[in-house]
Structures are given as C-alpha cells and as structure tokens.
Design goal:
The complex is a heterodimer of chains A (393) and B (323).
Chain A (H helix, E strand, L loop, with lengths): L6 H17 L9 H17 L18 H13 L11 H14 L2 H13 L4 E4 L15 E5 L2 E12 L6 E7 L10 E7 L5 E6 L8 E12 L10 H14 L3 H20 L12 H31 L6 H23 L14 H14 L4 H12 L7
Parallel strand pairs in A: 1-4
Antiparallel strand pairs in A: 2-3, 3-7, 4-5, 6-7
Chain B lengths: L7 H16 L15 H9 L18 H13 L5 H11 L3 H8 L4 E8 L2 E5 L4 E8 L2 E6 L4 E5 L8 E5 L4 E6 L2 H31 L1 E2 L2 E2 L4 H29 L5 H27 L10 H11 L6 H9 L6
Parallel strand pairs in B: 1-3
Antiparallel strand pairs in B: 1-2, 2-6, 3-4, 4-7, 5-6, 8-9
Classes of the chains: A alpha+beta (393), B alpha+beta (323).
Bound molecules: flavin-adenine dinucleotide.
Chain lengths: 393, 323
C-alpha cells in the first residue's frame, strides 16, 4: 500500500491548480435558463482550447487520456478552485456518458461527427431513457420506432429528461421491434433535438426549478445512420452508457463532499443559534459534523482504492453501486445537518441555487438518491454483484 | 498510490490467516476454550515473531510497518482473537530494557491492558499476565502486576477476561509519544474490521441456504438490502483503515486524524454488522452455540478501546488533512 502520488501526478496537480487559479470564471454560473447553458458551453470551450477537455477520454479521440488517479486529482482541484462543477453542468451527459458511449459503440462517422463537438462544448446532450412507465425497470420502456426505408419513425414519450430544452442531442432508447419484450428489440439513437415532431414540456420540481421535462414524440423521422450499436441491440449500448454513468459518473460529487464538510464546519463556527452561541458549541451538532467528516474521509479512501485498482487491472470493479449508496447517504446527512445549523436562513429559498446553495442541496439530496439508479436499486445491484446473493427478481 | 494489500503484504496476510485459523479458531470459544491467549499460545505466537512485526529491526523486531500490523490483526479479529495478543505487541514497543523486551517478544510473560475506571483500574486479558500496559495518546507505561491486588470479574465477552486492579505499583517502563497508542488504534480497528467481515460472511452464506415461504431469505429484500448496507459500511471502514495505516507508515502529518476516522468507522461497521448478523439469522442467531453473539460481544468491547466515539469525534472535527 502506498499513498504517495507519482512525480508525474504531483506535477499534473500543480499544473491544474495553476491553470484553474488563473482561469476560473469570476462570475458565478447563472442558476438556470439559457444563460446557464451558455455559461457551460463557454467554460467547456475554454477547457477545450487550453487542452483540459475530455479528462476521461482516450487521446486518440481528442481526450486527455488521464489515468483514473489523475482524474481524481482534476476533480479535487476543480472543487478546490470553486470552478464550475462538472456534475451541475448541462455538459454533464455529453462528457460523462454520451461521448464515451459513442467512443465505445459508435461508427467512424459518428465518432468523427460527435466527439469534437462534445469536447468543444458545441454539442450538449440529454438522456432519454426513462419514461412514465419505465424508471427503475428501464426494460419496460414503450416509446417505439417503426422502420420506414432508411428511417425510423418514433412515437411515444420520455420522462425526467434533464436539460432537454438546452440539448442539441439526446441518448434516445426506444423499442424498434414491436413484438419484442423487455431487453430485446431496443435501439439506442443519437437523436437530433432539432427534429420536427418533438414537444418538450417542463416538469416543475420541489426544487422550484424546471430542469426536467417530458419529451413527446409524434411521428418523428430519424435516419437509421443515427443508430449507435446494433439495431435491436440497444440494451447492450444502454448498459455501456450506464456503466460510464455508474463508474466514474459520481466522482465529482464524491470529492466535492470533502470540500463541503469543511465549509459546513466553518459555517457552524460562524453562525450563532437563537441563544447567541456558535452552533459548533452544541455537542450534538459537533458530533454529527465529525461523523460526517469521517464518512467523507472514507468516501475519499474508497474512491482512491477503487480507482487505483482499476488503473492497475484496466477493468472497473462492481463497487460503483456501493459508492453511490455511501455518497448519497452522506450527502443527505450533511444537508440535513446544515439545515439545523442555518436556523431561519434555511427557510429563505426562492429556487435560485446561487442565493441559497445549502437549501438547494438539501432538496437535491432526494434527486441524488433517486435519479441515476435509486438507492434501493443500488442495494439490489450490490446484493447481486458484490455479495452474489440469490436474486430477488 | 495503491490502497489494497499487495506483494509481500499479501504473503503476510495469508500466513497470518493460516496461522490464526489454526492456532485460535473461533470454534475454541465453543469448546470450553478459556479467554485470553494462555501461556502456550503466547509462546508459539512469540516464536513466530508475531508480537514484533512492527518493532524496529535494531530493537529486535521484523521492522515492518503499521500496514502489516493491520493485516495481522484483521485476521485475529476474524477469529474473535483475544485482545491480549495486541497488548503484548504494544508492550513490546514500550519495553526499553533489552531483557524485558526479549522476554515479551518471545511471549515468555504476558501483558494485559489497563484501563482507568474511577479510582482503580480495569484489567482486560490478564489471567496469566505478569504486566499491565497503560496507553494514552501521550505515551505508554508498563506496570508489574505482581504487587497489585487483582479481583477477577465475570466477563460478557468470552474472548477476554476482565478484572479490577487496585494498588498498582510504579511503572517499570515508559515510552513517551503517540506511537503505541496509534498502533493500538490500528490493531483494534483492524480487529473490528475482521469481526465486521466475519459477520457479513456468515449472514451471506446463511442467506443462501435458509429458506422461508419457498425461497432463500437472501432473495427477500429486507435481508438483501441490510446485507448490502453492511457491505458498504465494511468497505468504507476497510478503505479508511488502509489509508490510515499507510499514512502512519509514511509518517504523514495527518496520520493521527486518519487513524481517528478509521477507528470510528471500524467501531460503527463492526457494531452494525455484528448486530444485523444476529437479527438476520433469526432465532438461531441468539443461541450460545452460534458464533454471532461472540462477534457482537467482542466488537462491543473493542469499540471502547483506543478512542471511544466521543473522543475520536472531538479530535476529528478540527483536524487538518493533506492531499
Ligand atoms: C430530477 C430527476 C432527473 C432525472 N433525470 C433523468 C434523465 O436525464 N434521463 C433519464 O432517462 N432519467 C432521468 N431521471 C429518471 C430516474 O432515472 C428515475 O426516476 C429513477 O430511475 C427511478 O425510476 P422511477 O422514478 O420510475 O421510480 P420507480 O421505478 O417507479 O420506483 C419507485 C420506488 O420503488 C423503488 N423500487 C423500484 N423497483 C424496485 C425493486 N426492484 N426493488 C426495490 N425497490 C424498488 C424505487 O427505489 C423507488 O423508491 C431523473 C429523475 C429525477 C427525479
């Protein structure tokens, strides 16, 4: 065992820190709307122009070809520099799983077209997997595609599509064989969001925002050249997408938590309770903070252990689900605790995360433990793949 | 950067697992095997050099680090091994005098743990001990027990004896600094991790074979999901222990903070896993003949040592951490 980063890694950290210190935008990301997605595109463009785009992507596809550990370093430095966070950006789907799916399963033409656009921030993507009747049970999806010549004609509805209104492309998973059941007969499309016949309807959430949407498809024509992977082999392509999402998809959240606990401790030292005492002098608050600090240390150690192992073997292990369970639970405990520290400030919320990040975080903690595979589903995956218990389904 | 046992570390872990499973299998506690090491086992552990694993070479030890120390005590924990194995290894670190140190390294005489308890001391693992070791984060002291009054008490945890000591004489050896305390933290955290892993292994195996309502209990989500939660907390405790032991080995400035976190997480993981293991076994889980209660009782004791929950958390709150 060894905690020392190599000279190369330390040098990478120093370069990243220096560049970020000079280049992090001085204005905060707008809380929502097109100005937010424009901000995300601009930041992505800047990363691209200075050679910091595609941290997880192989060099041959224009990425940086970083090792897993260097990616950890990159996300730690982003968080430390208060740089625009990768996981709250409208570039997230494109960078973290659409691009990698195209790299893994796309044709040469698809790679040549999509990858440079993703890296430069020109293309934003959204994920069109879930439907009103298919969430945890994704294989129950019913949005259909009928083959007509060299086109597919799509009908149906997707639900929970985050940032659909800003996206240029969608990872669209549909049923192309009408007689098929479950995992068979599905197809994964790189879908152009400018296609005629789609209708996007925002869903207002308890966070008082409108980032998630219903997307309706009415006789929408898609060329067969948009199929990524095999026609009818969409389940396999979708599993590749989810493996990227579940592998390093939450790495930014994992590492940011470490930074957040530090801020919560500062906050508890500054803010006074109704009796005029700093919150941190309350023994219960102090212990809860320290408990959460210990959990975030464990999350960092788990992240490093898992990534160093993957760097060595080249094969990601089955531990992503365990990681997500721990990160979401710790995130929830932290935001619940800060809600106690904040006193009345906690209740002042207008839906703008920039005005009250902690309350936004508190509300978001449920999204975190439901979206991208709920905690119950993560426990199922852990029981199946890590513990190899008898199947429940 | 690598955070799992590798190379020679793995060899030591395997050798320890084999030796411990053979010399003190958990089954001993069902076969009327007494608490503590006993003179015979102590001598054979001494002969193998296990007490001197982390002792410097120029002091007669193997010159290995906190990492190997952790790997060894994880195996001890898995078999519900008695605490005095660890205390012997700590006593070795405290003994300055050559003859005394050699006596302890060889396991010729035993060392038990002294814990302050109002105006007297508790002695854990002292049925055959000649010395008592008192450890704080500031330093450690060895006392000769032959002059003290020792009153045996009944012990909840069958792995270790329990007694009350009064009239403790002056220390015969002392060592300043945090080192012994830190090795105590690594050792108890590793034993707790071993207990937590043993508890999870037991329930996962049982969940595959015990059937209710026509299917194995491992197919019921209330059982599966609790097992998954145990796996997650064990994974966190294990990763943090590897991190902390390596930080100690590399003499990093933030080692003590990582050790406090590691001990805390091991306390929590072991208590959660050993508790849930009993529950998910159903009635068989509360029987004397099952291992489940042995794991739970041992974990309850170890969780009190080398930093109770409140001490650990208080120190951790403001501790600074490095990259
Ligand atoms: C804010 C937000 C953003 C999202 N963004 C996207 C997006 O961009 N693209 C996209 O495709 N999807 C997105 N999702 C959808 C998300 O992936 C689903 O909400 C999630 O997978 C859960 O599915 P569901 O909502 O249908 O809940 P259901 O599947 O109906 O589950 C209901 C409850 O039952 C539990 N449950 C379900 N099955 C089991 C089981 N087998 N065992 C035990 N418990 C079970 C669940 O954990 C949950 O608690 C988003 C969701 C949210 C809330």
């Amino acid at each position: 065992m060894d905690l020392r980063f190599s000279d190369e890694d330390r040098d990478f950290r120093a370069r990243a820190r220096q560049w970020l210190a000079a280049n992090v935008p001085s204005t905060p990301r707008p809380a929502g709307g097109h100005s937010a997605s424009q901000f995300d595109r601009d930041w992505q463009r800047k990363l691209y122009e200075h050679g910091w785009a595609g941290v997880a992507w192989p060099k041959e596809f224009g990425g940086m070809g970083l090792s897993g550990l260097q990616q950890v370093i990159w996300y730690e430095e982003l968080s430390r520099a208060h740089a625009p966070a990768a996981h709250v950006s409208t570039t997230y789907v494109a960078q973290m799983h659409a691009g990698p799916t195209v790299i893994a399963r796309g044709t040469e033409e698809q790679k040549a077209f999509h990858l440079p656009r993703i890296l430069s921030g020109e293309s934003l993507w959204c994920q069109g997997f879930s439907e009103p009747g298919a969430g945890s049970d994704l294989a129950a999806l019913r949005t259909s595609g009928r083959i007509e010549g060299d086109h597919l004609v799509v009908n149906g509805a997707k639900m929970w599509t985050t940032d659909a209104m800003y996206a240029d492309w969608m990872e669209l998973l549909i049923r192309t064989d009408p007689d098929s059941q479950r995992h068979k007969g599905l197809t994964w499309l790189a879908f152009d969001m400018k296609s005629p016949g789609i209708d996007i309807k925002p869903i207002r959430t308890m966070l008082m925002d409108d980032h998630v949407n219903m997307v309706f498809f009415d006789e929408v024509r898609v060329p067969l050249s948009a199929v990524v992977g095999e026609l009818g082999g969409g389940w396999s392509t979708a599993m590749a997408t989810l493996s990227f999402e579940r592998g390093l998809g939450f790495i930014a959240d994992q590492l940011e938590l470490f930074e957040k606990v530090g801020r919560a401790i500062e906050l508890a030292s500054e803010l006074k309770d109704a009796d005029g005492r700093p919150a941190i002098e309350d023994v219960e608050i102090a212990r809860r903070l320290a408990t959460i600090k210990a959990e975030t240390m464990a999350i960092r150690a788990m992240t490093l252990a898992d990534i160093a192992e993957t760097d060595r073997t080249g094969i990601p292990g089955p531990k992503g689900s365990m990681m997500k369970l721990k990160v979401t639970a710790t995130h929830k405990a932290l935001s619940r605790l800060v809600s106690d520290i904040l006193g009345w400030q906690f209740f002042e919320f207008d839906g703008n995360r920039n005005n009250n990040l902690w309350t936004h975080d508190f509300l978001w903690s449920w999204v975190f433990s439901i979206a991208g595979g709920s905690s119950e589903i993560q426990r199922e995956i852990t029981a199946d793949r890590v513990l190899e218990l008898p199947r429940s389904r | 950067m690598y955070l799992a046992p590798e190379g020679e570390e793995l060899e030591i872990a395997t050798a320890a697992a084999d030796f411990i499973a053979d010399a003190l299998p958990i089954a001993r506690l069902h076969e009327g095997g007494g608490s503590d090491m006993g003179a015979e086992l102590r001598a054979s552990l001494g002969e193998m050099g296990w007490f001197a694993l982390a002792l410097d070479e120029d002091r007669g030890g193997s010159g290995l680090s906190a990492v190997e120390h952790a790997l060894f005590f994880r195996e001890v924990g898995r078999q519900c091994g008695p605490l005095d194995i660890l205390v012997q290894a700590l006593g070795v670190q405290c003994a300055q005098d050559l003859t005394l140190r050699a006596e302890l390294v060889a396991g010729e005489s035993g060392v038990a743990l002294l814990m302050p308890d109002s105006d007297r001391h508790r002695l854990i693992g002292g049925t055959e001990a000649r010395y008592g070791l008192f450890v704080t984060p500031q330093g450690a002291a060895l006392h000769d027990l032959s002059v003290a009054k020792i009153e045996p008490r009944p012990a909840l945890d069958p792995a270790n004896s329990l007694a009350i000591v009064s009239g403790l004489g002056p220390a015969i050896a002392t060592r300043d600094g945090a080192q012994i305390w830190q090795l105590g933290q690594v050792g108890t955290a590793a034993m707790l991790l071993g207990l937590a892993e043993a508890a999870l292994d037991l329930i996962v195996e049982y969940a595959k074979v015990r059937e209710t309502f026509g299917k194995p209990i491992g197919a019921w989500q209330a059982v599966r999901h609790t097992c998954a939660d145990m796996a997650v907390s064990n994974e966190g405790a294990r990763s943090q222990l590897w991190y902390a032991a390596t930080a100690l080995k590399e003499a990093r400035g933030d080692a003590s903070a990582h050790l406090d976190a590691a001990k805390h997480l091991a306390n929590e993981a072991a208590q959660f896993a050993t508790d849930s293991n009993i529950q998910l076994h159903g009635g068989i889980g509360v029987t004397d003949e099952h291992d489940a209660h042995l794991l739970m009782k041992h974990a309850a004791l170890l969780a009190r040592l080398f930093g109770s929950r409140n001490d650990l958390l208080a120190r951790l709150l403001h501790a600074e951490l490095e990259d």
